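ASSEMBLY PREDICTION REQUEST
Request ID: AP-0331
Submitted by: J.K., bench scientist
Number of chains: two
Total residues: 227
Priority: normal
Notes: Please return the full assembly, not individual chains.
Input sequences:
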Amino acid sequence: AQTVTQSQPEMSVQEAETVTLSCTYDTSESDYYLFWYKQPPSRQMILVIRQEAYKQQNATENRFSVNFQKAAKSFSLKISDSQLGDAAMYFCAYRSEIRGDYKLSFGAGTTVTVRA
Amino acid sequence: NAGVTQTPKFRVLKTGQSMTLLCAQDMNHEYMYWYRQDPGMGLRLIHYSVGEGTTAKGEVPDGYNVSRLKKQNFLLGLESAAPSQTSVYFCASSSLGRGQFFGPGTRLTVL
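STATUS: Completed
Returned structure:
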C-alpha cells in the first residue's frame, strides 16, 4: 500500500502572502496521479489540483501550484496571494494508474489558517 | 446536476443498532467509494466498487457491508453499530482519468 505523509499538522499564513504545504509519498510504481484536496469548515472535499506522474511540468490552477519532484517523491502545494477563503484543511492524495481501481490514499492533512 | 449526494447528513445510533447510508451520483461514474474520516487520520477507504454489481474491501472494511445494485447508488451498511464507528463518512465517485468527486458527508455518532 502507498503511504502519503504530510508532516505539517498546521500552517499559518498572512493574507496576501504565500504558504507551501509539503507532501511526500512512498511508491514503487511509475504511473500514478497526485492530488491536493481542500476541506473547508463546511466539510465538503474540493479538488484543488492534480498532477500526472509522467508529466514533468508542474500543474497550476490560478493561485495554486505544485512542485512535483518525482525522484524525491515529493509533491508540495503552494498557495499564492492567500485569501481568507483559503482557510481549510488540505489533503494530499495518491492514486495508482496501474491497479485499475483508482483508489485514493490520503495523507493526514494540514490545517491552514489565514490571518487577516 | 446534483453530483454526489448522501443520505442522511446526521445520525445518532445506539450500540448494536443497524443502519444504511445511501450514496447517489448522477454523473454516470463507474467507480464509487466509501471513506471514513477521523481526527488526525485523514480519509480511510472502507469499501469500493469498480462497477455495477461489484464491490471490494478497502483499508478498514470490518463492521461494514456494501452493495452496488444500481450504477448510480452505493449503499454502506452497519449491521451492529459500535462506538468505534463514530466518524464522518464520505462517499465519492469517479470516472477514468478524473479525480474523485465527494458527497457532503454523513456525521454518525454511536452511543
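REVIEWER COMMENTS: Chain A touches chain B through 23 residues (CB under 8 Å).
SIGN-OFF: pending second reviewer
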